[in-house]
């Protein structure tokens, strides 16, 4: 059994929507993983990947790496390429650090 929710992680003044999936029957804290989405954005497929990690005993968090661009998910290759091309690697690293710090503060994370 897996529990899931959407977190709003604040990173450098921007709210980063993040999909969190946790083992609901965990005995104590579990290791955490951060799931990075493909160029399509935070899609149902990526949420399913996070749920599968949670089913395997991990706390899995998938942040929306396009949060600074309006949190867009797409199926159009041209739009996906434009979104990925506009991403700042420096901001992504800062946002991922904010997500990691948020996970460290969760009592369900070891």
Architecture overview:
With 110 residues, this protein is of the alpha+beta class. The chain has three helices and four strands, in the order E-E-E-H-E-H-H. It has a four-stranded mixed β-sheet with strand order 1-2-4-3. The longest helix is centred in the last third of the chain and has 16 residues, at 89-104.
The rough form would be described as globular
How many strand elements? 4
What share of residues is helical? 25-40%
* Proportion of beta-strand residues: 25-35%
Structural class: alpha+beta
On the 0 to 100 scale, the average pLDDT is 90
- Outline the biggest β-sheet: 4 strands, mixed
Order of helices and strands: EEEHEHH
Count of helix runs: 3
Distance between the termini: 19 Å
Low-confidence stretches: none
């Amino acid at each position: 059994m897996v529990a899931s929710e959407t977190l709003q992680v604040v990173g450098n003044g921007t709210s980063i929507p993040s999909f969190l999936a946790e083992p609901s029957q965990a005995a104590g804290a579990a290791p955490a993983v951060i799931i990075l989405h493909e160029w399509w954005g935070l899609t149902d497929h990526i949420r399913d990947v996070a749920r599968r990690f949670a089913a395997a005993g991990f706390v899995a968090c998938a942040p929306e790496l396009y949060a600074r661009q309006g949190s867009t998910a797409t199926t159009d290759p041209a739009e996906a390429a434009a979104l990925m091309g506009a991403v700042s690697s420096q901001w992504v690293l800062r946002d991922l650090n904010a997500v990691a710090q948020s996970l460290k503060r969760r009592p369900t994370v070891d």
